[in-house]
Structure prediction request, 66 residues.
Amino acid sequence: MKNINISDFKFKFTGYGHYKVIYTSPTTGKSWEVTTTDMPLIDATKNTEYPKKKDLEHLKWICKNL
Prediction:
């Protein structure tokens, strides 16, 4: 199992307070996408130099389950 990394995600600004997030599994290549308004999570992942693993795991969960 490969560690999760910020490079596994793509972010697209879709409007004020909205981001489309695409997670691509590094092992299977399968992708999931979600549009989120969770700006604190976006700030903790996309807008930080060193995102925490727990924040990346939470964003991955959102992409795969919502």
In short: Residues 39 and 47 are 10 Å apart (CA to CA). The chain has one domain: 6-65.
